[in-house]
Specification:
By secondary structure, the protein is an alpha+beta fold. The protein has helices at residues 2-8, 12-32, 71-101, 105-108, 110-143, and strands at 37-41, 47-52, 56-62. It has a 3-stranded antiparallel sheet, covered by helices on one side. Strand 2 (47-52) and strand 3 (56-62) form a beta hairpin. The two termini are 40 Å apart.
Length: 144
């Protein structure tokens, strides 16, 4: 096994264990269904939106005084608040995902693993070329 580890430049058993642990964490995270929710409201508090990563717009509150706004102004306020809350949800979700992925050797060592695989592929190709050359020599010797 050490020869394979040396040829690849990483320990394939450790990679398999890390992959198992990583996918178990993903499963656990999915089962926990970490939902992110954000609330945005207009400065005068007449309009408020609650946005969820699972449901999108969850609630929309339009106070009676907000109804005095023109239709375009009210629509613009609602859309602006939706975008603001959505951005907060996406930012928090990205932060949670980054925290989750941090510390995973699959993520942290992906460049080294990739380079090891590319290097190993080169070595395998060279060994195959050498084997083909040896076979050709044997064939020519057998023909004599």
């Amino acid at each position: 096994m050490n020869e394979l580890k040396d040829a690849l430049g990483f320990d394939p058993e450790k990679l398999a264990e890390d992959a198992d642990a990583f996918f178990a964490q993903l499963r656990d995270m999915h089962q926990a269904s970490t939902e992110v929710t954000a609330r945005a409201e207009s400065p005068d508090r007449r309009v408020a939106v609650e946005y969820s990563s699972a449901d999108g717009v969850r609630t929309l509150h339009i106070g009676p005084r907000a109804m005095r706004m023109g239709a375009e102004e009210l629509a613009g306020t609602v859309l602006s608040l939706i975008r603001q809350a959505q951005h907060e949800v996406e930012t928090e979700g990205q932060k949670q995902l980054t925290e989750f992925l941090r510390g995973s050797s699959l993520i942290d060592e992906r460049d080294a693993i990739g380079q090891g695989l590319r290097d190993a592929n080169g070595a395998v190709q060279q060994n195959l070329a050498n084997a083909a050359e040896t076979l050709d020599k044997l064939r020519s010797m057998m023909r004599r």
